[in-house]
Write a structure and sequence with these properties.
Blueprint lengths: L2 H31 L1 E11 L5 E12 L8 E2 L8 E4 L9 E9 L1 E10 L4 E3 L7 E4 L2 H5 L1 E9 L4 E9 H4 E3 L6 E3 L3 E5 L4 E11 L2 E4 L4 E6 L4 E6 L5 E7 L2 E7 L7 E2 L3 E3 L4 E9 L3
Parallel strand pairs: 1-10, 8-12, 14-22
Antiparallel strand pairs: 1-5, 2-3, 2-4, 2-6, 2-7, 6-9, 7-8, 10-13, 11-12, 14-15, 14-18, 16-17, 16-19, 19-20, 19-21
């Protein structure tokens, strides 16, 4: 082969390698852009239990209908995740995971529980075993069907209804865990915050563990929460619209707010609510 031909061949090879490198770089950059950030936050609605201790051993998601397509999230603190869900009230929440995932349709998430779950009942000194059926241990599926677009952050509130999630078996007396969880996308919901106090002899005192109920303007109960040790509360995951807050406490006059307007992505503060003695 002549020197001229050899130079020509080498030049062609170099050109092809450069083109491949450019394509690969573009592909890499493109793949880096085609991701979204997903956050899962766990909150609780109040129930008649002092503690409900849950152990989560895996959190998975899938973006297709194929049953084998589940992928695991990797929380910063790792697994297991142990939480007393009765503490997730008054605006408290547990960030289960905060990760970057490929764009597309996020169809489902799945919480995999262990059988190491317990509850504490008022009047009982010892923790009671919470029987966890194999279906919950293999994974509690939550439907999302949310389209993830590149570069956006999506926060999902997993609203655990503890009262509906625990069933007492009639014959055996066992307590059975059958989780009832409603999922709200934070990007399509808002919140209401406030504080509840009493004023006795001109001394203002926070009212703790007070139930706050939120109703539609048609008087349909939507959800409730409890105030914390400072009397503060936050009702999260509400669709845009108008709501009424109601508070009932023994020896106090019932409280009912005027209409509170909730907007997507906003926290609407109702300020301090002072309950009055009858």
């Amino acid at each position: 082969m002549s020197m001229r031909c050899l130079k020509s061949v080498l030049g062609t090879v170099v050109t092809i390698m450069a083109l491949l490198l450019i394509v690969n770089c573009d592909s890499d950059n493109s793949s880096k852009k085609e991701t979204a950030r997903v956050q899962l936050k766990l909150v609780d609605e109040p129930g008649d239990y002092l503690e409900v201790n849950i152990e989560i051993i895996d959190i998975q998601y899938k973006s297709s209908d194929e049953e084998e397509s589940w992928e695991s999230f990797t929380p910063e603190g790792g697994y297991p995740i142990n939480v007393d869900i009765t503490e997730l009230i008054a605006g408290n929440s547990l960030l289960l995971t905060d990760e970057v995932v490929p764009v597309g349709i996020l169809k489902q998430v799945r919480l995999v529980l262990s059988d190491n779950n317990t509850l504490k009942i008022e009047g009982e000194d010892e923790l009671v075993s919470l029987d966890t059926p194999s279906a919950e241990q293999s994974g509690l599926k939550l439907n999302l069907d949310e389209e993830l677009e590149a570069g956006f952050v999506y926060s999902f509130i997993l609203d655990w209804n503890v009262q509906k999630s625990i069933v007492k078996a009639g014959n055996s007396g066992k307590y059975i865990l059958k989780p009832v969880i409603k999922v709200n996308a934070e990007v399509s919901s808002g919140s209401i915050s406030g504080k509840v106090v009493e004023n006795i002899e001109e001394v203002e005192t926070a009212i703790t563990n007070q139930v706050i109920e939120v109703y539609t303007t048609d008087d349909a109960l939507i959800k409730d929460t409890l105030t914390d040790e400072n009397g503060d509360f936050v009702l999260q995951g509400l669709e845009a619209g108008n709501y009424i807050l109601k508070i009932s406490k023994e020896t106090y006059l019932p409280y009912e707010s005027s209409e509170v307007t909730v907007e997507v992505g906003n926290i609407e503060s109702v300020g301090t609510i002072t309950l009055e003695l009858e």
